[in-house]
Amino acid sequence: MRRRYAAMKFDLIGMALLAAAGHGESGGGGLAEQFGVNWSNLFAQIVVFLAVFFILKRFAFGPILAQLEERKERIREQQENAEKIRRELAEAEETRRRLVAEANERATKIVSEAETSASALTERRTQEAVAQAEALIAKARDAAARDRDQMMGELRREVGRLVVQTTAKVAGKVLTPEDQRRLQEEAAREMVV
Q1: Is 30 left (phi over 0), alpha (psi -120 to 50) or beta?
Q2: Residues 6+ apart with CB under 8 A from 49
Q3: CB-CB contact of 19 with 37 (8 Å)
Q4: pTM confidence score
Q5: What is the pLDDT of residues 148-182, one digit of tens each?
Q6: Which residue of 5, 67, 85, 170 is most buried, as measured by CB atoms within 10 A?
Q7: C-alpha distance across the termini of the chain, in Å
Q8: Secondary structure of the chain: what % helix, strand, coil (to 5)?
Q9: Does residue 164 sit in helix, strand or coil?
Q10: What does DSSP assign to residue 175?
Q11: Considering just the CA atoms, what is the radius of gyration of the chain in Å?
Q12: 137 contact partners, CB below 8 Å, separation of at least 6
C-alpha cells in the first residue's frame, strides 16, 4: 500500500515538472495555455493536495485500517469459539446418547437376568417362585430406573455446566448465579424433550 502512495506522489511530482518544463520550452502558445492552465495555481493545488493526502494517510487511513483489522480478528476469534462450542455440544450429545444406551443396555441385561432367574425358579417352585420372580423384576426395573435417572441427572448437570461455561466464553463476561441457574435449567429442559 505504501508503494502505491509513493508511486502516486512521484507521478504527481513528475506531471508538475513536465508541465513546468513544457511551459518554459514553448515560450508561447503551448497546449496548456490553450486550455487556460495557470501553472502557479496548479503547483499550489498539487502541494495542497499532497499535504492533505499525507495528513489523511497519517491520521485517518492508518487508524481506520487498524480498527478494521482488529474487528476482522475479533470476528475470526468469535467464529472459532462458536465452532468450538458446536464441537463441545456435539461431544456432550454423543456422551448423553452413549450413557442412555449403556443405561438401556444395563436395564435390558438386568431385566433379562431377572426373567431368566424367574423362569428357573418357576420350574422348581410354583407360586412362591412366581412371587419371587416378580419381586426381582420390580427391583431390577427400579434399579435400572434409578441408574438411568442418576445418569440423566449427571448428564444434565454436565451439559448445564458446559452450556454455562461456553456461554460465558462466547459472551465474554462472568455470568451471575441466576444466569447460570437459568441456563442450566434450559439445557436440562431441552434434554428431556
Answers
A1: beta
A2: 12
A3: yes
A4: 0.33
A5: 888 877 877 777 777 777 777 767 667 777 877 77
A6: 85
A7: 56
A8: 90, 0, 10
A9: helix
A10: P
A11: 40
A12: 111, 114, 115, 118
